[in-house]
Structure prediction request, 239 residues.
Amino acid sequence: MEEKVKGIVIGSADFKESDRLITLFTLEKGILNAILKGVKKPNSKLKFAKEIFCFGEFILTQKAGVKNGFYIIIGCDLVDNFFDLSQNFDKYFEGCKLLEIIKFVSKIGQQDVGLFIELLKALKTLTYENVARNLILCKFLLKIFEATGYKLNLNKCASCGSEFFGKRYFCMETGEICCVGCKTYNFLEILPQTHTNFRLISNTPYEKLSTLKLSIGECLDLLVLNFKIRFNNKFSITL
Ligand SMILES: [Zn+2]
Prediction:
């Protein structure tokens, strides 16, 4: 039986003599593994579909005898290959970070429309807009936390719910931001400006990120550390 899915290639590895094993992040089924047969042969029509960042409508089939629930890709209508990413090493590396984060927070066969849309928006911004790369990563991580149920409290103390005045504190384990009265030993004081920057980045859509001129070093450091702690420090790529 054939089925169509919208997907982005987030991983691609050699498989047998002329095939590739593709990891697809799809709108309909979350992550799935699929084989692209004969794609290393010179006359293969689906060569473009083996590249990471390839976004398209994939036609899949699951033939009897194929183990581990792997799909076979039998067609692909390209929507965007984000070609410009491959022309700029820094942008390409930043794009790889986004794919690695998705691999980490998504599960095989589990649909997550929100995450899929976030990845597309972030890749488009990275490819086509003039926005600082670390700002896109910051925005993406904030959205990832939101999509996975760990939204940062940006307006009121996470513990007592009061408005912030004066000092505020960030908890690396939970990502909570608390007031001076609620902080415990594992909270770090953060600059009010850092807190404001979190709010600005969170409230600014991807298409308007280019209007933000912020120094976001501390924001990114906190989010990356928090991400690593949440996911047990198993994340290998340098964020
Ligand atoms: Zn409080």
About this structure: The mean pLDDT is 90. The beta strands are 2-15, 19-26, 30-36, 55-61, 71-80, 168-171, 177-179, 187-190. Residues 150-239 form one domain. The pocket of zinc ion is lined by residues 157, 159-160, 162, 178-179, 181-182 (CB under 6 Å).
